Amino acid sequence: MNEQVLAAVEEDPAGRIWCEVCGTDEHIFIERARWRRRGGAEFWDIDYTCTKCDSFYGHAVRDSEVTPALMAAMAVAQSGVALGRAAQS
To answer: Which superkingdom does the taxonomy of this entry point to (predicted)?
Structure first.
């Protein structure tokens, strides 16, 4: 990730997993969540789609800013990835 983009994302609170087109988080589906460490900081790289307008986003969230609701949604996404891989085998 570009350092300027990372800096901009770091300023954005965890609550901004949001569809800019629809102006809501109501239709967000988390596709993938990956834990990363950059420069001593811990992040989750989260890829998500708005199921209403089909917009795709990527967002980095500091590990310390992950809310219980976001963690639950990421767990569901991780389960889906694992199930998808098992089904493809």
So the answer is: Bacteria
What's the number of domains the chain is made of? 1
Whether the pLDDT of residue 86 is over 50: the answer is no
Domain span at residue 69? 3-88
Q: What is the 3-state secondary structure (H, E, C) of 56-78?
A: EEEEEEEHHHCCHHHHHHHHHHH
Residue 14 has what DSSP assignment? Answer: G
Reply yes or no on whether the pLDDT at 72 is more than 50.
Answer: yes
pLDDT at 15 over 60: no
16 CB-side CA count, 13 A: 13
Q: Name the CA dihedral angle for 24, 30, 31, 35, rounded to a multiple of 10 degrees.
A: 130
SS3 33: strand
